[in-house]
Structure formats: C-alpha cells, structure tokens
Design a protein that fits this description.
5-stranded parallel sheet, 51 helices
Length: about 1300
C-alpha cells in the first residue's frame, strides 16, 4: 500500500521513447530522478534534431511533461494547458510531442491573417494527417486567436474531428481519389460518404490538439463558456443544475452500492464507463424523445389545422351556398327565356329551310331541261365545227405575204374579189368594193381578226348575200387554189363560216330557249341564294343562341355542380367536425401536453438515463429508493422540469409493448417490466442474473422468430456460432454463464466496432468479423449472487432478474385461479390479450386518423374516400374504446374475485423465498421456480375442497405450507431443518404483521455496539453481554421493554430464580412479561439472559406458532420420493457420512417393477464419462432407471450432464435418473434447481431417530420371528442405535475411535438378534 500511495505518482511509456525497436510499456517511473534522467536524454536528442531549446526539468515540469505525454499517446487525446506566458506550455508540449513520436504543427500569423488563411493552413494539416498519415500535435495558443471565429473551427475539430466544408468539391474529390483504395482495403464502403468518413476518422486518430491559454483576465473564462462542450438541447438556464445532478447521481450510486453490499451481500461496481454511458444515454435519449415529440406535435398540428380548415370552410360554404342558390335561380329563368326564343327562331328557320329545299328542287328540274336543250343545240353545232376548224387552219396556213399578194392586185381576179367581198359582207362593211377589201386586208392583224371574229353575230341577211356571191362565183376550191393561195384559204374560210351560220340559224331557237331557260334558272338561283342567305342568318342566330344557351346551361350545370359540391363539402365538413369533435378536444389537449412534456424531457430523460446506466444490478427496493426518493427529489430541488408523477416505465415503454412482453413470458410486475426496459433499451449488452430462468425463457420466446442462437462458454464451437451471429445480425444468447466470462468476447461486449457504416468490422479472437448492426448479445446466469469483476459491470449492463415477492405472488395467483376458476382465469387472460390488442389498435387508429389528415392533398372535403376512411376509423376507434371500457369494468370485477384468493398466493410466494434463501446456508440447496410450481400444483390438488372461500383458502395454505416444509426438509441436512422451520415461521408471521423486522434483527444480532452502556450491570450473575442486550432491548422497544433494566435491577432475585432454571423458556417469565409479550418477544427476552436455551426455545416457538409437525421433519420415504419425481427432474441424493441409498433404491425398484435390466448402476470415476452419457441416452429413450453414484468425483463432467439433460425434451414416462453426490460448492446449479433433492442422514433427537429406524423395518420383518421378546429386542436395538448416533455430536468424548454407526450396523445387529 505504501508503495502504491507514495508520491510522486508518475506513470508513462517514455522509457524507450528513443528506441524504435523496443516496445513501449506503460509503467511506474518510480520517482522524479528517474523521470528527469529519461527526459534529459530525450531533451538532448531533441536539441540535436530540432532547434535548440533550453529547459529546466524541475519536479513540476516533469509532472506536466508526463501528463502531456500521456495525453498525446492516447488516441484522439487533446489537452488544454492553462498558465501565464513564459511558464513553458509550448516548450513542454514540443518536447512531449517529440517523445511521443509526433510532429508539431503551428500556424504562422502575418498581417491580414484571416479565417480564409486559417482554413488554408488547416487544409495542409489535414492532408498531412489523412494522406501522409503523420501523427501530429496541433499547438494552438491564445496568441494565434486572430479572430474569435478561429475557436469555432477548433471546437468543430474537437467535437466532430474536422471543420465542416473545409475542402471545396474539387479538392475533396482529389482527397477521395488518393484514399479510395486504402479505404476499401480497411473495410470502408465504396461510396463517397464512406471514403470521406474514413479520411475524417483517420485524420482525427492522428490529430492531437494542445491549446495553450493564459488565465489572465476574463478572456479564457469567456471562451470556455462559449464552447462548453455540453449538449445543445440542455438550456443554459438549467445547465449547471443538470451537471450537478449528473455528478450527484454517480456519487449516490456508489453510496447505494456499499449499502447493497452490506444489506444483501451483493456487489455492484460503479465505473467511469457507467458515468460516460450515463451522459451519452442522456444526450441520445433527449434527442430521440425530442424528435419523437416534435413528430407527434407535427401530426397533431396538421390534424388540428385540417379540422380548423374544415370548420372555416363550413362557415364559408354556408354563405356561398346561399348566394349560389340565388344565382342558380336567376340563371334558370334566363335559360328558360332563351329556350323560348330559340324555339320561335327555330320554327322560322324550319319554314325557310322548307322553302329553300323546294326552290332547290325547282332549280334542279330547270337545270335538267336546260342541259337537254343545250345538249341538242350543241350537238348540231358540233357538226359544223370541224369545217369551221378547217377554215381556221386554212387561215393559219396563210401568212402575211399571201394576203399582201392579193392586196397588190390593182384589179384582182374575179374569184378573189368575190371572196374578199364575201368577207366584207360577213364583217359588216357597208362599202362592198375592192378598195374596201384592200383596206380591210391592210389591217395589221387581218388574219387573226378573221380567226377571232364572232361568227354568231353574222346576220342572216349577210349570210344570204354571201351565199348569193358564192352562187354566182361558180368556182371550186381547186380552181381557186390555182388562182390564189390566199384566195383559196379565204374561200375555204367563207364556205365554212356559211356552213356554220346555216347550222347556227337552224339551232338558234333552241339556243334562245336555252338562254331563256338559263335566265329563269339564274333568277331562281338568286331567289334560292336569298332564301339561303336568310336561312343562314337565322341559323347563325340560332347557333349563337344555341351557344349562348349551351353556355348558360353549362354555367347553370357548373353552378349546380358547385352547389352539389358545396352540399357534399358541407356534409363532409359536418361529418369531420361532428365525428372528430372529441378528437379535436383530445388532440388539442394532447398537443398542449406534448409541448409541456417536451419541456419536462430535460428532467425525465435525466432520470431515465440514470436508470438505464446504473440500476440494473440492484433489487427492486434499492431501485425504488434511488430513482424515486433520491434522484427525483434532487431533480425537483434543483428546479429541473420533471413530469409529475414521474414513472420510468411511462417514458421508456408503453402498455402495448408491456403486453407483448407479457405474451412472450415476461411477468407483468414492475421489476420485470423494468428489467425488460433495461434489456431492450440499454446501450450495453445485457448480463442477466436469472436464478429462476424467467429472463432466459422470455428472451428465447422474444427472439425465436429472429433466428436466435444459443450457446455457452463450455461449447467448443461457441466462437464459430458467435461469429455467424455477428456477421448476419442474429441475436445470440450465452446461457449458464458463471463468474468467469471469456475475455475473447470483450470486443463484442464493448462494441469495439471499426469502419464506416458501409462495412463495419469487429475483432473476435484473432480475426476480423463483419459486424451487422442488428446483432444482439444476451448473457444469462443461473447464479443467484455472482461476484463479477468491475470490468464486467463496465462492459455489460448487469440486470437482476431475481423474482420479487409481489411478482411471484401475482404469478402464483394466476396458477391458483387456473386451478380454482379456470374459465375465469382464461377469460382474464383473454381479456388481457384483447385489451392489449385493442389498445394497440386504438393507438394505430389514432395514428391512422392523423396520418390520413396529414397526407391528404387538395381540398380535404372533396376527398370522399378520406372522409369515409376517417368516419370508418372513428367508428372503429369508438367501438374499440367502448370495448376497452367494458374490458376495464370486467377486469375490475375479475380482479376483485382474484384478490380474494391472494392470501394463498402470498403464502406461496413467501414459502418460495424461504426455500431459495436456504442457498445462503449451503450451495446445494438450490430450488427453481419451475420445480416449486410442481409442489404448488401438488398442494392445490391435495388440499381439501370447500364451498366456503375462507375455509378453502385455509385448506390450501395449510396443505401448501406443510408440503413445502416436507419438500424442503427432504433436501436439507438435519442441522439446517430447524433453521428452515424458523425462517418459514418468521416470514409467515411477518406477512401477518407480527414479528417486525427490527425485532428479528435484534434476535439475530443482539447489541453489536462496541461502546459499553453508561448504566452499570446491577447483578453479578448476569453476563456482561446479556446486560448490554437488556439495555439495548429497552432502547429499541420501549413500549414493551422500556422498564426492563429497572425491573431487573429492582427485582433481581426474581429474575435470578428464573435465570437459574434448567428450562427457563418453559417456565413463566417474571413480573408482567409473561402476559404482555408475544411468543417472539419472549425469545428476545430469553436471548438477553440465556442464549444457550435459544435452540430449545425456537423449537417451542415454532410449535406454538405453526404446530408440532413443523419441528418433526418427515421420515425419508423412497416411495414418496418416487411419487414426487418426474422423468424430466433427476433425484439427487446429497450424501452424509455413512449413508448409502443404493440398497433402499434397489428395494424400491423391485417394488415398482424396475428390477433386473430396467435399473442401471454406474459408479462414476475417471473414464466413465462417455459410458454414463450413453446409459443416460438409452435409459431416457427406453424408460429405464439409471443411478449415477459419487458424481462429486467428476465435477467438470457434470456440466456435460446438465447439457445432456437439457437436450432430453421428451423422455420416456418411466425414465428416472438417480444421482448421488457429496455436498460440493461447484455442483451445477441447473441440475440442483430442477432436481428433487434428498439428504440421507439420521434425524436429530432420539424420538425422530427411532421413528426413522422403524420406518425402514417392514412388518414382515417384525413378525418373521415368533419369539415374544423379539419386538422388544428390536426396540431396544433401535433405541441403542439412536443413542450411539446422537453421541456423534460430541466427537470423541467418551469414545476411543471415531466411527459412523450407520444403518448397515443396525440391520446386521438385527440379523444377529434373529
């Protein structure tokens, strides 16, 4: 101790700092001289490699150097050095960095140095850290704070590892490209985010920030307040109170741990990990619950806004609908008027249309006649056209020279002149002469004019004159051609024209008729056009009216639709408002409550985080005291907002989840619910102290659908199974954990996960395993009070699942009701399940209402489906709510009836704890809840039925108490049976309100004070300790013993007479104490005077209180043991010296039909392990009996036996396993808990011993000898045997040789008598 506590305390790993080959060992440097020698050598090396630095290494400097060096050697270790200028902060940092193998990085200030320059320097630093992988100390002094904003960047580096947005995108991409391969190799994901996170983590791991600040002035104080490192969710007003409470909680847990150790002999260690876990849990829980409440508030606000919107729309719609109805009526009248006008105009249009159609028919007929006449005329005319065409071609054949030739004649040939004159006549010349002809022919376009002249305009007179000329001419075409080419052409032309004119004269009447008809046709056509014009006008008007009418109809329809929509919206709004009116009120209240809860989260999460971090190992009483009497009170005194009344369960779970846990096998009592919370919500993996295996069964059922893997540290392949579970995210359960936890799983317990979110790995043994975040680890031990090291308490959350009296009482009440009122209990269980489902449904329906309202788009009132859904949901919610109310009433009625059976359940719970407490006396006295429930069921069946409830309860409690007494005594050594009876009596009395705990503690301990009382002992015959006890008794219980000291002093002779009696406990107590004291208080009085008579007095006390049968343990009956046994529970014989149950067991086997090959024996020893397991497997399948003797010789193998028994789930009903063992501390608890334990030991006292001997002597033996003295001799022999065995208590006194006179001696002697 002196070596550990001596000054100085200097620990470090810098002894080998200058050697690159030797490993660094963190060790005690011993003293200043050793430290100075090491640092001087480092200093000299520094001066050789770096710039020279003069240092005086005095003692304080060595301490500072050691601390700074230790901080820098820690991964992500940062330091704040506070000292006035010139105190050596920078020099010591540089030397410590050199010793730690780190470079030093400092910024260099220049004129105009700003944040942008600082950021550039930080970029260079991070490239050195992340790309070059250099461990670097960033030395930052108060002189470097050119701008206060620099400290914000430093704060970011300390909290998150990097400055946000330090690198622009292009530079960031360059960093990512340089590191991508390395990141993938180290297990990071391929995404940019994963590689960037790898860079940040790598940089942060290589970075050590040392802030060197001066305490002069308020600058440092102000800066520390600006960057406190606290949770941003804790308001500044409550920050100091929260910090103080956190410290108080940590201290209080240490105090309660000491008290826990003193009262219950149970360990709990408070480690720094608990403290850090507390802070981390508080921060996470505060953020999680705040986000949850914000989301809830948002949903409620949206829902309320929608309802408010519907209310406003309802008012607005009523006004709009009234206005709309007026407009709709006006539009209807206007449409009617327009419709009448359209009808009138339509009639006129129809008349016009008929007229037009008639006219069109008339025109069509005329057109047909014209076509016929015109066709006839044109057909006649067509006959003349070829000749006319030939004439034209003849003219075309002439050219100007031919005409000039004729014109040049002074006196032309007669034929030529006649032809020319004919042309003059045809052209209407009045002067018919050669001169006129020449003039005509001198025209520029003479030939063209002939071809284009109007032949139809030649009059008949002209035709007659021309014909006359031609008749007189008497010249043929050939002759004319010989005379003149031009003449012949014009002759041909004239003859053709004459032929045409003759034809035209003949068809002229027809043409005139056609012209007349066409004129009439055109007239009719004009009339038709006029009619059609009028019709078109009317139709346009009709079309315009139609469009107008259609528009009016559409407008009216639109108004009608709007009115109908408004009606629908009114109905929908009314449904919403009336249907959700209760929700509106409730949501408003809930919203307000949530806002208040959000404020109160500050204190609620503080208590809840402390609960999750600290209370797991404590019993319910300690938890209740710490949480509600210490922590809650402290939060209230510090005025931190807190819910009233505060319940841990209300914040960390809900009724739906608790009900689900119940259906999975977790008891519904408060402690079990708390344990469920700790197991499910704790930040560390759960280490369950679970002697009754309730946690084990719950976890198995809870995780059965998640591919739960179960193993133990004794399984050779547990690491492989664990690896698979970690890799694929399966839950993993270590069962049967003892006090040693294999360190190979330390990394798993501590969740030492490396890598980014894309790929996380965890080191398991000597290999890295991919880590799935869904992985869960549970550890479970059957030990009722394991002694774990503090490291286990730091790595895992130790949870005490030991059943409580109240919890067990509720479980046993269910068992009683299942037996007494099975239908009622089934109804209750169904009701609980239904209530759970309905509460879950009600919550889901409420969430559904809010979700539907929140997600609705557009006008909510138009969404018919939404309104119907809301209405249906509301209807269902109302129905469910009514069911819940009915269930609550029914539950109250059922609970009233159940509570009437509670006294029997309470007695059962008390008796179970009496049994389990015997394990404190001897480790072999282990009892499981499952085996106790078998005794409980047996007692219910054995107890006498009665129609009167009180009598029935009395029968149950009487039978149960005696059954448990017999069951317990069967497995107890004789020396412990009276203790068992006394403990049972006291616990039952205390449950009835008698024998207070204070009286019991005095009875057990007496006066433990080391100080003597001031009052002197009045009499010599009384022992000194006895007088001290008398004084203390009077002080503790003045009501009954206040005058005891005076009474003893004043009536010393009376007390001495009573004191001197051989059996004072059976005599009357002096003075008033005989009448005024209870039976137990008389024990207290007797204890003060005659401690030696307490054993006998306790026997009398039990006899008076419980009955004589509770001080007469039952005689061991092998037939009764067989009746109590089951195929799944082994029978363990706990041997005492000289006892051997093999003979009796063979007799039992013969009587039960299991003789010969059906009963297998095996004496355990080295090499028998496999044989035993093979025999066990055969016996379990074939229904044989197997006896394994002396199992204490193979303690380690018993673990294998326990596993093998667990695997036998469906043994043959006739199978029984009998095990004999000496009492040893390492016997597997699992076997002991599930077994029926039998102690084979002679009973205490002559009477009980003789009774035990006679129980083994059969009637056939007694009557086998006809001699009349034989039975008397057997009695004498039994009496002698009992005396000899009782003498063993006194050791060798009176005996030459220590010898265990056993049953074999008795039966051998009996044979001799015969």
């Amino acid at each position: 101790m002196e070596a550990v506590m001596r000054d100085p305390i200097l620990f470090g790993d810098y002894r080998t700092a200058l050697s690159e080959t030797e490993p660094r060992v963190y060790e005690d440097i011993q003293d200043y001289d050793a430290s100075k020698a090491l640092f001087q050598e480092i200093h000299e090396e520094y001066n050789e490699n770096k710039s020279g630095m003069n240092l005086v290494l005095f003692d304080d400097a060595l301490e500072h150097l050691t601390r700074v060096h230790r901080i820098i050697r820690i991964e992500r270790g940062h330091a704040l050095l506070v000292g006035v200028g010139g105190s050596g902060k920078q020099s010591l940092t540089k030397l410590a960095a050199f010793a730690a193998g780190c470079e030093v990085f400092e910024i260099t200030l220049s004129r105009g140095y700003s944040e942008s320059n600082f950021r550039d320097d930080l970029k260079a630093l991070y490239l050195k850290l992340g790309i070059e992988n250099k461990k670097t100390v960033f030395l930052f002094t108060d002189a470097h704070v050119a701008e206060e904003g620099f400290l914000e960047l430093i704060n970011n580096m300390l909290t998150s590892g990097i400055v946000p947005a330090l690198f622009p995108d292009d530079e960031k991409e360059s960093v990512l490209n340089q590191l991508r391969d390395e990141a993938l190799t180290m297990g990071a994901g391929p995404s940019k985010e994963s590689v960037w996170q790898y860079f940040v983590n790598k940089s942060a791991n290589n970075l050590h920030i040392v802030l060197a600040m001066s305490p002069v002035g308020d600058t440092l104080r102000t800066r520390c307040r600006n960057f406190p490192g606290e949770s941003p969710m804790v308001p500044e007003a409550h920050s100091a109170a929260v910090i103080a409470h956190v410290c108080m909680v940590h201290s209080s847990v240490g105090d309660h741990s000491k008290l826990f150790q003193q009262k219950l002999r149970r360990c709990n260690y408070v480690t720094p990990k608990n403290y850090l876990d507390f802070i981390s849990t508080y921060s996470n829980l505060l953020e999680e619950k705040d986000q949850y409440i914000l989301a809830q508030c948002k949903h409620l606000e949206v829902g309320l806004d929608k309802l408010k919107e519907a209310s406003e729309q309802l008012l607005d719609l009523n006004v709009k609908l009234a206005e709309q109805k007026v407009v709709l009526a006006e539009k209807s009248i206007a449409c009617e008027t327009m419709l009448n006008e359209i009808g009138t105009n339509t009639t006129v249009a129809e008349e016009k249309k008929t007229l037009a159609e008639d006219k069109a028919k008339e025109i069509e007929e005329q057109n047909k006649v014209i076509a016929v006449e015109k066709k006839e005329a044109e057909s006649s005319l067509t006959e003349a056209l070829p000749a006319l065409e030939a004439a034209r071609k003849a003219l075309e054949a002439l050219d100007k020279s031919d005409v000039t030739e004729i014109r040049s004649f002074a006196k032309p040939p007669k034929q030529v002149q006649v032809v020319c004159e004919c042309i003059l006549v045809m052209r209407g010349y009045k002067d018919i002469s050669w001169q006129s002809a020449k003039g005509m022919m001198s025209e520029a376009n003479f030939l063209r004019s002939l071809m284009t002249m109007d032949y139809d305009s030649i009059h008949y007179t002209q035709v007659k004159i021309v014909k006359g000329y031609l008749k007189d001419l008497q010249t043929s075409f050939e002759e004319m051609q010989a005379i003149s080419k031009a003449g012949s052409g014009m002759l041909k032309f004239v003859e053709a024209i004459m032929g045409y004119c003759e034809t035209a004269r003949e068809i002229k009447p027809k043409r005139e008729k056609v012209a007349r008809l066409e004129k009439n046709f055109f007239q009719s056509k004009k009339e038709l056009e006029l009619i059609q014009s009028e019709l078109n006008k009317i139709q346009k008007e009709l079309h315009a009216l139609g469009e107008k009418y259609q528009a009016a109809i559409e407008e009216k329809g639109q108004l009608q639709n709007e009115a109908e929509l408004m009606e629908k919206r009114l109905i929908a709004a009314d449904k919403l408002i009336s249907g959700l009116s209760s929700e509106n009120i409730r949501w408003t209240q809930d919203l307000e409550e949530l806002k208040q809860r959000r404020v109160r989260l500050l204190g609620d999460c503080l208590i809840a985080a402390a609960f999750l971090s600290y209370v797991g190992a404590f019993s319910w009483d300690f938890r209740n005291e710490m949480v509600y009497n210490v922590w809650v009170k402290d939060v209230q005194e510090r005025s931190i907002p807190l819910s009233q009344p505060f319940k841990v369960e209300s914040l960390l779970t809900d009724e739906v989840e608790i009900s689900r846990w119940g259906s999975e096998g977790l008891p519904p009592d408060e402690l079990s619910v708390q344990n469920g919370i700790l197991t499910s919500r704790g930040s560390r993996f759960a280490m369950c102290i679970d002697p009754q295996q309730q946690a084990l069964n719950w976890i198995k059922k809870k995780e059965q659908n998640n591919n739960l893997k179960i193993s133990s540290f004794n399984d050779p392949d547990f690491l492989k199974q664990l690896e698979m579970a970690i890799k694929y995210g399966f839950p993993f359960l270590f069962q049967d954990v003892d006090e040693y936890i294999d360190p190979v799983i330390d990394n798993v317990l501590e969740k030492n996960v490396k890598g980014a979110e894309g790929r996380q790995v965890l080191t398991l043994g000597d290999k890295e395993v991919d880590y799935d975040p869904n992985f869960k680890l549970y550890l479970n031990t059957k030990l009722s009070n394991p002694k774990y090291s503090p490291s286990v308490f730091g790595k895992a959350i130790v949870i005490n699942y030991t059943v409580t009296l109240k919890g067990l009482e509720d479980q046993l009440l269910s068992v009683i009701m299942g037996f007494e009122k099975k239908e009622l209990e089934e109804q209750r269980e169904h009701l609980i399940q239904e209530t759970s489902n309905n509460k879950k449904l009600l919550k889901n329906l409420g969430d559904s209402l809010l979700r539907e309202l929140a997600t609705s788009t557009g006008n909510m009132l138009d969404n018919t489906e939404l309104v119907n859904t809301l209405e249906e949901t509301k209807s269902k919610a109302s129905e469910v709510f009514e069911k819940l109310q009915l269930a609550e009433k029914t539950s109250v009625a059922i609970d009233e009836l159940r509570d009437s059976y509670r006294p029997a359940a309470k007695r059962g719970a008390i008796l179970f704890f009496v049994l389990t407490e015997m394990a404190l006396v001897n480790s072999m006295y282990q009892y499981s809840l499952a085996s106790y429930l078998e005794v409980f069921d047996f007692s219910l069946r054995r107890s006498l039925p009665d129609s009167v409830l009180l009598k029935r309860l009395k029968n149950i409690m009487t039978t149960l108490t005696y059954s448990v007494y017999n069951y317990g005594c069967t497995g107890l050594f004789e020396r412990h049976k009276l203790l068992f009876s006394f403990n049972m009596t006291i616990k039952i009395e205390q449950a009835e309100g008698r024998s207070p705990q204070e009286e019991l503690e005095f009875f057990i301990k007496g006066n433990l004070s080391l100080e003597k009382s001031r009052r002197k002992k009045p009499c010599d015959w009384l022992a000194d300790q006895g007088w001290e006890d008398i004084v203390k008794l009077g002080e503790l219980f003045p009501e009954h013993f206040g005058s005891l000291s005076d009474d003893v002093e004043k009536h010393s002779s009376d007390w001495k007479s009573w004191y001197d009696l051989d059996g004072p406990e059976q005599a009357q107590f002096p003075m008033k104490y005989e009448e005024n004291l209870s039976a137990f208080q008389k024990l207290l009085l007797l204890r003060c005077f005659r401690v030696d008579r307490i054993y006998r007095a306790v026997t009398d006390y039990i006899t008076v209180t419980m009955g004589e049968k509770y001080v007469q343990p039952p005689v061991i009956s092998f037939d009764a043991i067989y009746d109590q046994s089951t195929p799944s529970s082994p029978i363990v014989f706990i041997l005492s010296p000289g006892s051997d149950p093999a003979t009796d067991l063979m007799k039992l086997a013969e009587r039960s039909g299991f003789g010969d090959n059906k009963f297998k024996f095996l004496a355990m020893g080295q090499g028998q392990e496999k044989v035993a397991l093979q025999l066990l497997e055969k016996a379990a399948s074939r229904g044989q009996w197997l006896m394994l003797q002396n199992c204490h010789l193979l303690v380690k193998w018993l673990k294998d036996l326990e596993k093998c028994l667990e695997k036998i789930t469906k043994p043959n009903p006739n199978f029984r396993l009998w095990v004999t063992t000496n009492p040893i501390p390492d016997f597997p608890i699992g076997i002991l808990q599930k077994s029926l334990k039998v102690v084979t030991e002679p009973p205490n006292g002559l009477k009980l011993n003789i009774r035990g001997t006679y129980s083994k002597v059969s009637t056939e033996t007694l009557i086998s000898c006809p001699h009349p003295a034989f039975s008397s001799l057997v009695y004498v022999l039994a009496f002698f045997h009992a005396v000899v065995q009782e003498r063993r208590k006194y050791g060798k006194i009176g005996w030459n040789v220590s010898y265990d006179f056993n049953e074999s001696d008795f039966f051998v002697s009996g044979t001799g008598v015969i």
